[in-house]
Amino acid sequence: RAHVALRPAFPHGSARAGGIAGSGRSLAVGCKIQRHPGSAKCLRNSRRENVLASEDILARRGVAVHETNRGGDVTYHGPGQLVGYPIFNLRSIRLPLSARRMGPVEYLRLLEEVLIRTCAAYGILTARQANRTGVWTLPGGSIAEKKIAAIGVHISRGITSHGFALNVTTD
Q: How far apart are CA 51 and CA 115, in angstroms?
């Protein structure tokens, strides 16, 4: 299992998203998929005290804490997760049966749908939960009900960055 360091991944994604924004291209698409070593992200609206593990525990487990520009609270990425960073120019995507551009909410719902269908392809039944972002396993299935995929995006000038984390073999 190869791991990609978290720190180089963010500048690459941010630079790529910035390049797309300034390119004038109508639809630029990219998606970086990777597995991270243990990392916690303190997000734009989070507080450091929301990292529940002590500095000592984080250091012993090799978990680095990084600040990032997307919304939400503290997020952990580590071995056993598949993390994706899709980059889209939402201003160039029109909603089906409409002339309206895709907005942030529609984008989040489509990411959820991709994750739901991916899980279904592996025999895992999942669903959305009302008023929450992400994907949960269904109760009564072979897997206990719990969040299986988290989503956190940043959108600037219509360009998406950050993305999702799908729990595959986490402990």
A: 26
Q: What is the largest CA-CA distance in the chain?
A: 54
Helix, coil or strand: residue 137: strand
Q: Is the separation of the CB atoms in 113 and 134 below 8 Å? A: no
Beta bridge partners of 67: 42
How large is the average pLDDT for residues 48-64? 81
Its pTM stands at 0.72
117: left (phi over 0), alpha (psi -120 to 50) or beta: alpha
Alpha helices for the chain (secondary structure H): 6-23, 55-60, 104-121
Report the distance separating Cα 40 and Cα 78, nearest Å. Answer: 8
The confidence score (pLDDT) of residue 8 equals: 36
Instruction: Report CA torsion sign: 100, 102, 104, 105.
Output: positive
pLDDT tens-place string over residues 29-44: 667 776 666 666 655 5
